[in-house]
Design brief:
Number of helices: 7
Largest sheet: none
Strand content: under 5%
Shape: globular
Distance between the termini: 33 Å
Helix content: over 70%
Length: 188
């Protein structure tokens, strides 16, 4: 791997997003409201970096195989670990667990599907709706994180979390339908 790939600014931003997950999780898990505020700020920065790294990679023509691999991993880690932490600290109600489980199911399933299809040399391009799905997931998790700091956000965060769950399932279904010919053996 060329050193310039690793040290490109867009890839360094993606790598920083991955490393930010551990302190964000720890800060939330302390249970301290002030540290939760710090976690919230770090989470917002990490979530925003998802857009920034892609924008810079395209603008500076630094799109790389490493970045294409790391970016979705960073997104899934940020969402998945934040879901685990928020479930652990009781931020989700029982009903919230329905979209949360849908989100986790889809993320694992589609990752496995992409790995399988990669072995048969098939690429499923990321749809625009899937990009919006990630954005809605990150905003929903931000609001769930914010609920304990700003009372009264429960309904808004719940609605956004359900929207994220619905978008997540919908995009998962789209990918599954697009890959079905390769899974069923009907592809040329």
């Amino acid at each position: 791997m060329a050193k310039s790939q690793i040290t490109s600014i867009p890839n360094l931003i993606t790598i920083a997003r991955i490393f930010a997950i551990v302190p964000i999780a720890w800060l939330v898990m302390t249970g301290d409201q002030n540290l939760r505020t710090v976690a919230l700020v770090l989470f917002i920065v990490a979530a925003a970096s998802d857009w920034v790294d892609g924008y810079l990679a395209r603008k500076w023509q630094q799109v790389s195989p490493l970045g294409r691999m790391l970016d979705p991993i960073a997104d899934k880690m940020l969402v998945g670990i934040m879901i685990a932490v928020l479930a652990w600290d009781g931020s989700f109600s029982g009903w919230d667990m329905i979209p949360v489980i849908a989100i986790l199911f889809r993320e694992f399933f589609i990752s496995g599907l992409r790995e399988f299809l990669g072995n048969v040399k098939v690429v499923l391009p990321v749809s625009q709706l899937a990009k919006w799905k990630t954005t809605v997931q990150l905003v929903a998790l931000t609001l769930v994180l914010l609920e304990r700091l700003v009372p009264g956000l429960g309904l808004i965060s719940d609605l956004l979390l359900w929207l994220a769950g619905i978008l997540t399932l919908w995009t998962g279904l789209q990918y599954f339908r697009a890959s079905w010919p390769h899974l069923s053996g009907e592809a040329p």
